[in-house]
């Protein structure tokens, strides 16, 4: 244990959070970065979202991976490496790993040390023959693979439609980063939520049990907890809308009255009806996502969908 007096006085993580919150709430159109939705409470609420009847993405993607595991893993050669970007609990990955008895290594990348430790323990129990080489880090930056793995064939895995949280330009940039990490000849398996009836989309992000509302409002609760702010959670309401022009679901927090909130000595005013944009979740048609992949030098290969065409899994090959 480090002597507390020897630790640097500034806490960079809290400082970044403060700066991002104040900056986002000082803009003419208020926004907060969606990554801050996932603190301990937020991650628990997201877990509950994935089990809601209205929230189809998680169970549909899982069904696709189950139904097509054989084909999806066919591109991974014996001795190849499977690299997962933002692996979390690695639960979906097990559906692929159980089909890959001769995999060279599984490389989960995640910012959470605890999530990686939990995943490693689970995998050691359930698939003890899999060689796991975890990397603690942010997958949006290029990462070097362990030296002993660099000559092996690489397959990237990026499920969950996490790519939908990025604008198309950011998503293209991320696919280029993945290409740099995986190198040419590599494969990438990506989960992407599909465009569909807006009513069904909005229901998935504004469920009848109010779990998504609680998930969204937790962001204000987190700012109160961590930055000592005084958001009145009863004076803001969750709203989910489908923005057809941009092809995305937007989550907002609507101020129910004119009010002001104090955050770290700063007063942030809200008009009645003013909103904070907290998350975008982009939806793609199959061909739109293939075009995006091409823009990042990936060649679209096979795609798999469920019978109702709710969700898609794409195989891309780096050219
Ligand atoms: C984890 C980003 C895929 O956009 O569907 C779910 C997050 N937000 N309900 C999504 C989320 C509200 C989710 N992703």
Low-confidence stretches: 1-5
What is the CA-CA span between the terminal residues?
48 Å
Measured by DSSP, the beta-strand proportion falls in: 15-25%
In helices, the fraction of residues equals 25-40%
Number of discrete helical segments = 10
How many whole angstroms does the radius of gyration measure?
A: 21 Å
List ligands, each type once: N,N,N-trimethyl-histidine
Give the neighbour order of strands across the main sheet: 4-3-2-5-6-13-12
Structural class: alpha/beta
Largest sheet: 7 strands, mixed
Mean pLDDT: 95
String of helices and strands: HEHHHEHEHEEHEHHEEEEEHEE
Shape summary: globular
> What is the number of beta strands?
13
Any chance you could write out the topology, listing elements then pairs?
Elements lengths: L11 H15 L3 E2 L8 H10 L7 H11 L1 H4 L8 E5 L8 H4 L7 E6 L2 H14 L8 E2 L17 E5 L9 H15 L4 E7 L4 H7 L6 H17 L8 E8 L4 E8 L3 E5 L2 E5 L4 E8 L3 H10 L2 E8 L5 E8 L1
Parallel strand pairs: 1-11, 2-3, 2-5, 3-4, 5-6
Antiparallel strand pairs: 6-13, 7-8, 8-11, 9-10, 12-13
Helix pairs in contact: 2-9
The structure holds N,N,N-trimethyl-histidine.
What does this 3D model show about the protein?
The protein is an alpha/beta fold. The chain is built from ten helices and 13 strands. Strand 9 and strand 10 form a beta hairpin. The longest helix is centred in the last third of the chain and has 17 residues, at 211-227. The N and C termini lie far apart (48 Å). The structure holds N,N,N-trimethyl-histidine.
